[in-house]
Amino acid sequence: MAKHIPLQHPLVTSSCSIIFVIVLAFVPTLAHSLTLQSDVEALKSLLNAIEQETIPASSFLSTWDFKGDPCESTGAKFLGVLCSIPSDNSTSRIISIDLSGAGYHGTLSPSIGNLTKLTSLDLSRNRLRGRLPDTLKNLKKLTRISISGNNFMGNIDGWIHELKKVERIDLSDNMLSGEIPARISELRRLIHLSLSNNHGLSGRIPDMNGLWQLRTLDLASNILEKRLPKLPTSLRTLNLSHNRLSGHFAPLGMLKQLRSIDVSHNRFSGSISRGILSLPRLEYLNVSHNGLTTIEVNNSRGSDTPLRVIDAQWNNLHGHLPPNLVNLGRLRVTNLANNRLTGRIPRSYGERLGRPWRTLFLDHNFLSGPLPPQFSSSMGRIRGSLAHNCLRCPANIPLCRGRQRPASDCMKRMLVEKIVK
Questions:
Q1: Pairwise CA distance, residues 93 & 114, whole Å
Q2: Cα 286-177-185 angle, rounded to 5 deg
Q3: Around Cβ 336, how many Cβ atoms within 10 Å?
Q4: Between residues 386 and 15, the one the model is more confident about
Q5: Rounded to whole angstroms, how far apart are CA atoms 202 and 131?
Q6: Cα dihedral angle (136, 183, 154, 51), rounded to 10 degrees?
Q7: Cα(198)–Cα(203) distance, integer angstroms
Q8: How would you list the strands of the sheet with 244-247, edge to edge?
Q9: Calpha distance 268→63 (Å, rounded)
Q10: Complete DSSP assignment for 48-66
């Protein structure tokens, strides 16, 4: 007779346990992290580097709840984070972080360098401070970085040249210092570079003609000095205003793609050359607050020249007003105020008032004589000023508002110019 073994017998219990363990060994794990663990830890470090009391309830960081997985989360969880979607069973990676415009206080954790698959990083318009970590150099896949509008300090030469795939860099409106590294020219994919309003970047601008795809270069409001560097012919927008640059800027006439030039508030000298004014795509030119002495305009009419704005106020322009300025057929705004210009206002200027000239500032010069007759009939079509000259300027003309100089002042100025010649 077969012997009955009860289910509670140790032999049965032991056998069942072995079978259960063996079965478990062949069951795939269903619950696992979809995000690489080092990426998760990096996100935690980024969050911990932010002062918690400055995280608004409506901001993206308030949705970072690490009870869930960053790349598995749905709905209003881990906002501002994008992940890769692997085609196999490999883990997901963080590829984009956008924490812009929330007003966060804190620092940028060096662990940012562990997010090695990151392609886009936007921390702009916050109140982050401290130094930018050199670990940023590990972000080899980065194509876009914007850290503008913060309070970051220090230099950028320890990491910026390593971002070989980057296309857009915006580090403006911080407190960065030191020189712009020469190796920045290694970033051959760069299209947009803004380092403006740091007020501390100094030294000479390195040659950038190797950045053959660069379209926008904005280095305004720093303490950069010496002469212009070699620049790429692809440039469309150039802003070097509010620095200490010197020498001539005539070489910009070789950059045929330029649409906007702002080199105001520097120490440039020489002339506003024909080559600049005849650039085939230039629409905006601001050379104000420099030491320029002459303005050269082509004799032939340039109705196809797209230039619409010339701002050359606060220079040392002398001699007569250039009559050929009317040859710039699309010109709308002209500001030649606060210079040393003498003589009469050309009759041709009157013919352009309101057609198409809309703004004309010639105040604070040494102009004399009567106005062209069209100035009386164009009162409602033009804004500007003719004040502080020696003109016979009727009080009923709005452009004439403000005092005129004594005629003797303009006579003295003309005598000085004759002596200098």
A1: 11
A2: 70
A3: 25
A4: 386
A5: 17
A6: -20
A7: 14
A8: 178-179, 201-204, 223-226, 244-247, 267-272, 291-295
A9: 51
A10: HTB-GGG--TTSGGGG--T
* HSE value, Cβ hemisphere, 13 Å, CA-based, for 256: 1
Whole-model pTM: value is 0.89
pLDDT score of 19: 36
Q: Distance between CA atoms of 418 and 421, rounded to whole angstroms?
A: 5
Q: How confident is the model at residue 78 (pLDDT cuts 50, 70, 90)?
A: very high
C-alpha dihedral over 123, 127, 131, 136, to 10 degrees?
A: -10
Residues 299-358 pLDDT 10s = 766 557 899 999 999 999 999 999 999 999 999 999 999 999 999 999 999 989 888 999
Q: What angle do CA 419, 249, 148 make, to 5 degrees?
A: 135
The single-letter code of the amino acid at 392 is R
Euclidean distance between CA atoms 259 and 330, whole angstroms: 14
100-117 residue pLDDT tens: 999 999 999 999 999 999
Q: How far is CA 150 from the centre of its chain?
A: 14
Q: Say how many CA atoms lie within 13 Å of 413 toward its Cβ.
A: 23
Cα four-point dihedral sign 323, 324, 330, 331: negative
Q: Tell me: the pLDDT tens digits for 367-384?
A: 999 999 888 876 667 899
SS3 159: coil
CA distances from 217 to 198, 220, 263, 285, 295 (A): 14, 9, 12, 15, 25
Please give the radius of gyration of the chain, using alpha carbons only, rounded to the nearest integer.
Answer: 33
Name the DSSP class of 188.
T
Q: How far is the C-alpha of 72 from the C-alpha of 75, rounded, in Å? A: 10
